[in-house]
Amino acid sequence: MPGVASFSGRGGHGPMDFDAVVLAGGLSKQLYPLVSKELPKALLPVGNKPVLSYTLEMLEANNLTHPHVVVAGEEAASRVRAWISDAFQDRLTARVTAVPEDSGTAEALRAVAHQIRAKDFIVLSGDLVCDVALGAVAAAHCRSTAAATALLCSQPNSSFAAESKDKGKATTAPPVDYIGLTTDGSSLLFCASAADVEHELRIRRSILRAAGQMVLRTDLMDTHLYVFNRVVLDVLEAQPGIASVKRDLLPYLVRTQLSPLPSSVTGPSSGPDDAVSREDSSGSAAGPVASPSLVEALSHPARRGLAGAVRRCGVYLAGPDKFCNRLNSLQQYIEVNREVAGDAVHLTGFPVSSFNNVVHPSVEIGSKTTVGAQCVLGEGVRLGDKCSVKRSVLGKNCRIGANVKIINSVLMAGCVVEDGCHVQNSVVSAGGHLQERASLKDCYVGAAYTVGTGEEHRGESLAKKQ
Amino acid sequence: MDGGSRRGSRQGMDPIVRRVGFVTPGTEPEIPLQQVVLNGPGQSSPAPVIIPPRPIIASSTLSQEINSKTTAALKTVTVDALKNANIEASRVSEDLTLSSSFGGSDRSGGEAVSEVPASLSTVTTMVRQVSIASASVPAGGFAGPSVGLTPAPIAASVSEKAAIGGVKEKPKTTRAERKAIQEAQRAAKAAAQGGGKAPSVKGSVAGGGDEKKGGGKPAEPKTPKATPRREGSLAGSEKKPPVPAVRMQFDDKDRVAKATKKNIVEQTETKNRVELFRHLPQYVHGSQLPSAEAKFFRVQEPGHPHPAVYQVGLRYLTGDIVGANARCVAMLLAFAEMIRDYSTPPQKTLVRDLTAKINSHVQFLTTCRPHAVSMGNAIKLLKTRILKLPGHFTEAEAKKSLIEDIDKFIQEKIVFADKVIVDHAVEKIREGDVVLTHGHSHVVEKILEAAHARGKNFRVVVVDSRPRLEGKALLRRLLQKGLKCTYTHVNGLCYIMQEVDRVFLGAATVLANGVVVSRAGSAATAMVAHAYSVPVLICCETYKFHERVQLDSICSNELGNPEALVDVPGRKELTELQGWDKNDNLQLLNLTYDAMPADYVAMIITELGLIPPTSVPVILREYRKESNALELL
Questions:
Q1: In chain B, which among 191-230 make CB contacts under 8 A with chain A?
Q2: Which residues form a coiled coil (chain A) (predicted)?
């Protein structure tokens, strides 16, 4: 592992010294039956664009044009690679790495650890759709010289919660994270996800003592976007037990932020005495001998974060006006699609019509058919007569017959919906076929599945037998 | 306005320099010199300044006469310095005659000064300071050394009064007349293109209180004809080579618009600014950071600062780096980083291109937060170094030499200087002392820690002030080290001062007239200390000294975030100020610095020794000599 003190080794006036790692996942079990071998999670369309494109576009907008993309599974990796090289031909040079299918996020990170050259790196989940300024998170990280900075946003509880009400409490509540922050909201003092918590929260007394006060919140969502110092790579190596970034690595870092570093990872931030001793050694390298820690020693900022933290865990709280969501469940998939078609339509980059929807110019619309607000209709979609489409996303070349109602749904590319069908709050994967008068409510239909004539489904997952 | 009463009280008091009388081995030659200057020959006790009635002489002849005398007496004063500034000269000479510090030099000032050759140099320095610093505040140069402090416009009006008839009583000015004065002054200010220093206006405003106590100096309604003369002198003095760059006056809309057009950091001026401080920049604090942060990764785009500088800028903006030293070091380190990554573009020379680059980076940092004097001095040094790079140097050599220079500056002027200051200052803490400090100066912190480490038994009083409450951090650190502390706020100052033996304060800058600019609240601390005859010791590295002269905290200051005043920690029910910016009748003022007059300062502890505030010009001169000598190499 190269040392942390790679200050002098940096050549040229490069961009900000940052690497980006996109953990694109593989075949998520949670999203069955939507994902398949042909369609890994990263390529699942959201607003008619693969979800990974949102992440990559965000990176591109921030000049991080050499991201490392880690995909679980060889086949999925090759598909993602092919798609990236096609879609981002001249814009990005992503390096796609495949890891074994059931490996955790931390293992994925280990797989690319040797390729990370920069002092800090951003790790983000490939299924993240958000419009938070990445620069702001990185800036917060740099400013506070934290070892890790997590982006947290307020729990999305908008339309989804309202609509799930009529279904009673059947759907499980979204997973709650218990997050402890300093009073000024700049440092992470505690984190645990609800899944790991049974009856009690174990909070380190030393941390509490150092912080004075802690605010414990459950209304925040971990977006799986982290900025790490490369010190963390050493932690990953030293702790082989860490399997997941969110569930193991972050809690570990938070827990141990007061304990001294292993001797091998002592970074450039050491005492001012060290600055003097380094003067002799690095005389030839023409490096500044006064270390940045001198600034810390001289400065006395208004108290930020934790007193005496060696590896501070910082937090960037996204403002309430920011959109941030992830695809981690089927319901969430519909939710994200709807948001991307609605309030967060600026993320797609599509031109929005005066009716507040996105309709491709090649779309053919039959007579007396209405396309409501917050819809995205892809290229070559053909709608029959007297149809009604509301708050839905229709993929490329979908063919819709007459008298069809599509509400709150996602139809991926190439779906065929025959006359008189009703689709509500459902997802139909690519190539799905709904024969006449079929009715779907709260259903998830796998790729190329055919729903027979007049069939009615409620809250089912339909997929071809493997 | 606090100016009047402050000056009035000061005139009646001894400069504390003599009363305390610290003598350091390093500065021995200067101390007697100062005493000579201050006491004058054969005048042992400093009486309050008494202004003698002026004889009736036509003002032009008077000024010429005195001008010639002054020129003759102070041979070292360059002729051109005075040539363009007849008025200044007359005011200067008048000050010589008026102030008791130059006792016998009235009219026959030449002989008096030449009798005291040692003082000549000091006088020369001061005169030079005057001409350098600001044409409109010539008397300010004498504020430190001389006891009688006469704001410039008063001096001018005195000479005019003399020309008219030498009446001593203050004539009643009607409202219209006062308005006329104001108009004239505004016009003069506008004519000076925003370059005229604010104190010219301020001085005359504050002069009201002065008249009553200062021996009945008459304030004459200014005739309009005085205005062009002042303008002329201003314009003339600006042509002189050592004039510092004209500071931006933020009440000049056109200039502000021009300057902010290219800014990276989005700045919106706040609406409700306090009238008196309109010339200072103040922005809506909320919008700056997000706009700057959003561009974090776009530094490669042309016109964007280097990543290292950019990060420093952001940390200025968020207040992560505060304190003159820390800001200066952070900036220099970032510049070193930038220079290391620098490569001269084709068809350009390193010297010019790098200077331009540094300029644009400084500009960026200034938009993040107005830069401190310490930074200004460091930037100046860096730029001179770039200019003086030997022509035969390759790019790599030049870069290496510059980085080494930066490093040397940090090590010598800051790190080492602090060590020496600590050594000096620890000597001044006696066994059983009660030491008071205000805010959180890291040098003072080091001093207290060092004294504690040396086993001295003393007590510390930490005085704090809203809204920053920086003293709490100091308090925490001191308590961790096991010092005995008392914590109070500024409003408890006069009660606690009774038991205090020493006051140690840090400084943002020390100006040529001995005025110490420090965190707001320090001046009040020093004043109370002065009233209780407690010596005030300022700990300041010499690189923070500046040639400028400043009489008040208004003309040059920094406006903090007014939002900071809105919330009182622990008092959530105090919501009166919520939504203050919606109310047009409400203005909030959060000043960052204030200026304490030299009279309150007993000693300035620098790395060159303990000096009285009156010796600041000497240090500045020597410092300049030294840097000039380096430049010649």
A1: none
A2: none
